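Reopening this one. Same input as before:
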Amino acid sequence: MKNRSFKQYFITGLLVWLPMGITVWVIMWLVGMLDAIFLAVLHAADTLIPGIHANAEYLRGVPGLGVAIVAVFIFATGVFVANMFGQWWLRKWHGMMNRIPVVRSIYTSVKQVADTLFSGSGHAFSKALLVQYPRQGSWTVAFLTGTPGGEVATYMDQPMVSVYVPTTPNPTSGFFLMMPKADVVELDMTVDDALKYIISMGVMVPPMRGAKPTADALKAPVA
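Same output, byte for byte:
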């Protein structure tokens, strides 16, 4: 009885502190990454511009300064490229990056993914889906990322959709699949609810947003 009570108390305390601990760890990781960018810029400036060594050493010791400066710089960049001159400068920058071997492949790929994910008019990760994976009769939650295109689409003999199947409990890794549109079921749950469902390994069940689906709903294709 005592061992069981000790175990229950320990698990209860763990459930209180574990979410807070992971949240703090993620925030500290983000802060550390931004600070590292700021310190790298300071080191480069210290190397290129003589006489600023003392100021650079002082700025390195100010906690959180790197985060604030990097955030302001990113915001200022967004303001700058929002006007005509900024758009011209941005086109020149893209053209230069696309002419550098090796860098061109990485830069273009990352830019296309970022444009797709953060574009307000895009369809990437806009819908939560129910798909059969990794075998027929085994269901999992996935996200719509678009439709196959280019050379790949020429080999498809039926309407297909591109989906991302995340792993649990880490949704940042997963599998990219192209599936028949008729085999994919669109869910009413939001993308945020679907992510919580995946990360919690099915413990946090999203609330019903509409009428209870019938058995025929599993045969309905995504819109």
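So the earlier flakiness isn't reproducible anymore. For the record, The two ends are 55 Å apart (CA to CA).
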